[in-house]
Each structure stands twice: as C-alpha cells, then as structure tokens.
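User: Structure tokens for both sequences below?

Assistant:
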Amino acid sequence: MSRLFASVRARATLAATLVVAVALVAAGTAVLLSLRSNLLGEAGTQAERSARDVATSLAVGTRYTELNLDDDDRPVQVVDEAGTLVAASEDLERITGTGVDAVTPQPSASPSDDGDDDDDSGESLEAGEIGEPTTVGDGTATVDGDTEDYRFVTVPVETRRGDQLTVYAGAPLSAEHGAVNTALTVMLIGFPLLLAVVAWVTWLVTRRALRPVEGIRREMAAITASEDLARRVPVPGTHDEVARLATTTNQTLAALESSVERQRRFVADASHELRSPIASLRTQLEVAAAHPELLDLDGAVEDTVRLQRLAADLLLLARLDAGERPADARVDLAALAREAAEGRTGVSVRGDAAVNVAGSRGQLGRVLANLLDNAQRHARSAVEVTVRRDGEAAVVAVADDGEGVPAADRERIFERFVRLDAARSRDDGGAGLGLAIARDVAVRHGGTLTVHDAPAGGALFELRLPGERA
C-alpha cells in the first residue's frame, strides 16, 4: 500500500491512541483523587472516634493516669490549658503534625489528678462538656519503633472540675497509601496494555477502511496511464463515504469522457466545416492565378465571409466553453431586437417599450441575430419578433411561418454542427452552430432557449432571461 495511506493509518492510529491516553489519564487521576479523598475522610472519622472516646472518658471524670491509651494504631495526646502534655499513648516515641512534640506526660497540678478521691465526698458535680472536633492535618508518629503517617483530629473537652483539655488522636494512613499505590500500579500496568490494544485495533480498522480507497487510487492510476476514460473505479458495497467517493469519481470520469468526446467531435466537425470554404477559396485563387480573366471575385468574397463567420463562431464557442462570464451591463432587449431586425425583409418587431436585462450586449445581440437568420431560412414569407415581460422574466419570441421543427428534433437542433436537412447546401444552411451558440449564451446568462409550435404553423423560438433587478 502506498505511503500516503500508510501515513493516514499512522496519523489515525496516533490520534486515536492519544485521545484514549488523555481520557485514561484524566479518568485515572479522578479515580485516584476520589479514592484518596474517601480514604482520608475515613481516616479522619476513625481519628475523631478515638479522640471522642478519650474526651468522653475525661468528661465523666476519669483521671489522666486511668485513661486507656494502649491502642498502638492510634496515637493519642492529652494537653492541658497551659499546653502541657498530661497523657499520651503507651510506647509513643515521636510525633509530628499535632503542634505538640512532647511524648512524655508531665505532672499536672490539676485538682482532678492530685491523688485525693474528691468524688467520694458526695459532692454533686456537673457533667463535663465535649467541643466540636477539628481536623488538624497529616503527620507522623513513631510508636514502639514503627513510624507511620497519620491523620490527626483534635477535640476540646471540659472536665467536671472545669479543666480545659485538648485531645489529639490520630488514625493511620497506611490503608490509604496502600490502596492508592495499588490503584496506581494497576493503572501503570493496565493503561499501556489498553493503549496498545487501542492502537492495534485502530490500525486494523483503518487499514480495512482505506482498502477500497487504495483500490480507487490504483484504478485512477491505471486510467491515467492508459488514458482510457471509459474505465471506472470499483464501488464498494459499504454504502458509506468511501462508496459515495467512488460513485462521485465515476460520475466525474463519465462527465470527463463526455467532455473529451464532445471536444473530439467538435474538432472533427470544425475541421470538416473549414475544409470546404478553404478548398473552394484555394481553387478560385489557383484558377485566377492561371487565368485571371476567370476569377470569380464575388464567390471568393462570399467564401471568405463564410470562413470569417465560421471562425468567429468557433472562437465564441471556445470562449464559452472556457467559462467566460458575460458582462453585467444593462441591455434593452426591445431595442436590441429592433436593431437586429433592421434591414431584414419580412421581419416585424412588436412588444413593450423597454425590457431590460443584465448581460453582454454583444452576446445577446448575437443570439437574436442567429435566431433571425434561422427563422428567415425556414420562413415562407414572414418572421415576427415579440418582446415582453412575463413576471420577473424577460421573454423574446421569434416565430416564422415555415414548416416548424418536429418534436423529436427540438433538442437535437441545439447540438453543434447539426443540420436537420442533410440535402440542404452548406451555403443556405450554414455550419449548424447558430442555435448551439444561442442556447449556450442563454444558459450562461441564467436563462433558457426552447422551441415550440408557432401560431402560424412554423417554429417559435422562445428566449427567456432573468429581468433586471430594481
């Protein structure tokens, strides 16, 4: 397969892989952040529960020395109002993140810890109060030689004797770290494998999708090499964009084949038409060179004029085929029709005073002249030209009282070099380009040229053009 399609496959595969990679990274990041957030929240809940348990014990009157703080997984600190550590978890060796670095409790002068059993006096005391927990943040703690990361929560508490204490408790983050690391490991291993599968599938699918395109390319290369425009590219049965591309390509080839065939026929017909006047003129000149007294000057002039007209017709057709756009001048069709009919015997013009259109005055004048020439050749006695408005359109009708045009030939007469009367002499019938030029000019002005039956029994040629916009 060619480098072009290999490059297309590579770009498609790379693009698909990059899109999936970005999506996977975004999704993986979201999953990791959500997982970490949930696990940190769970750790904070556990730390809060531990802190509340200790605070509850203190609130109901439990002494510092009687607190149960032997949970190795949750380091706890109890700090009095002066910031002195009064109780801590057993085997706590080091701690950071709570703001209190001390790990060894200090003696307290608090009445609740003076060694006297004041509660046996029978004195009625109010219950202690526990404040709202607050997340301090993350830190580390070393318990019995093991150092881990913790999330710490603080809970303020007021004992029954009015002591203001603060309880710091931590919950281990090992579960959070383990889950996040496991998920990250899975992603680092799974994502590359998934991207490889995506790239491989995209490569295969793209190759299969481009296979018909490669068939079209090969056939087009063969058509270019052989110059055989009758060949067509294969149309896949997938009914997708590639199938529509193949269909459009075949339509383009058909149009190109028709255009080339028309061009060849035009060149052949033009050569045939030019041969006769050139041969006649050459014969007359050769005779005149040998016998000056036999020179047919009128015939030579007539052949020269006919040759000049034919060359002008061919030049105009060549310009029209090249896509020459008509001028955008203001043209009065009524005045143009009267000008074209001037000096012609049996031709009458009637209609509106002024019927304006936008276009080329020279080309539209050529249309009217060709229509009048054709009508006069076939009319018995009279030709009538009518110029009128029909809604927003301008209409010029040229009618004769001749034999008319058979219904089967009403489109054929507009083909180039077509003369219905094969027995008619070339001098009387022309080269068969007048009506073809007239229709081409009409179409390029956004109009139409059609033929119908005239009221007098002859042919009625109707030129319809867009009227000039206000």
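Moving on to the next sequence.
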Amino acid sequence: MSLPAIEVSNLFDVAGKSAVIVGATGAFGKVVCATLGRAGARLTITAGSGEHLATLVAELVAEGIDAVAVARRPNTEADCDAIVGAAIETYGAIDILVVASGTNDVAAIETMPPERFRRVMLANVEGAWLIARAAGAAMIAQGTGGKVVFTSSARGKLGHPAGYSAYCTSKSAVDGMTRALGCEWGRHGITVNAIAPTVFRSPLTAWMFADDDHARSVRAGFLARVPVGRLGEPEDLAGPLLFLCSRASDFHTGHVVYPDGGYTAG
C-alpha cells in the first residue's frame, strides 16, 4: 500500500497572507507579530496607543517585515470597519485575524462594581465579537476562506480563588464564541479557534521568573500543577499560533488550544 499523498513542504506557510493583529503592542500581540511577520505575513497591527504602535512598526520594518498600523481598539463597529478596511486597502484582502487584546480586573465579586465587570467583558468579549464580525464579513465576501484566532486563557476552563469572576467569565465566553463561530463559518472555509496559554514570560509576569524568595515560592506552588515542570516562554506560543493561522489547521475549527505545559490537563 502506497503512502498517502500529503504535501508537507508548505503546510505551515503564511507568506504573503494579510493578517490583522488586534492588541499588537501587548505581550501576546508582540509574539503574534514576531511569529507571523517572520513567517512572511503582511501585518495590519492595531492598538489604542499610536506611540507604542509607531515604535512596534518601526521595529518590524527594520526586520524587513511588511507592516502598517491602525491606532484603534475594536470598541465600535466604526473602529472595526476602519481596521478591516485598512488591511484590505493596503494588502487587497484579509486572510488572518488574531485577536490578542484583552484585560483583567481582579476583585472579589462582592466588592467589584458592575461597571468594572462590564469593562472586562467589553474588552475581552464584545470587542472580539465586533472585530470578528467585521473580518468575517470581509472574508465571506472574498470567498477564499480565512483564519480567525481568539485569545482565551486557562482561566476560561479553570476557576481562580483570587477574584477572577470577571476574567474567568469573559474567557469562558470567548471559548463559547470560538465554538459558535467555528460552526457558523465552516461552510465558508473560515476556521475559528482560540489559543489559551497559562503563564508565559512577559513584562507583566517577569517577577514570577525572578530569583528571590517570593518568586521561588509562588513559582514552586504553580509548577506543582504543570507536568512539564517549567513556566512558558514566548516561543512556546509560536508553534500553535502558526498552526492555527496556516492551512495545517484547515480541518481544525471551534477548538481551544492550550499551550500550558499540561496545566489544564490535570
């Protein structure tokens, strides 16, 4: 019996693809920019800070990466239309959307004002829904399929005792949206998945990697639940991301992928 005809030479190829990255200046957003940009994708990067975006674009262009910036957050339909429109105007299409933006607000539920809960839901859920709506409509009109990747978290699956009622709820909603849109857009050749990391090295988590008594204590308690026995590094997210943005994942939709060293498996 002969081997199956599987073409692997360009299975993870995203060269020339037009990718919109929302929340590009955040820790995960920069991982996305580096991964897709160095793989040859053409980037439309967005964030609320024009200054930080300009710095990031300059860094990307210095590496030979094709990138343009749109200083908007996906807060309204007009914002999202402008973001998607910029990608199409610059590169002729939108092939990939990665929603890397989000926020957290830690407080016990009995002391958290409803408006703070709503801010988390707006940033993590409604914004993702709005930009996916705009990008999905454009992908459907193009008729050539597409890739949508949301950012979830291990906390979409697991609770947390330290006042994460807003964050956990929002990420669970992202997981549900991933499944719903995966079902809804499958017939258009658009795959929708989420990447859900746990702690990985970033400016926000740098303290957890430090060599002091507090960091070692916190790290030891956390790593007791991580089968591979270490914290995550940015490159640990690059492989799953490239998979979800390339034709390698054409039959993979509505799923949440956990690059977490086995944390959510236990």
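User: Anything stand out in the second?

Assistant: The helical segments are 27-38, 50-62, 77-91, 114-142, 165-185, 213-223, 234-245.
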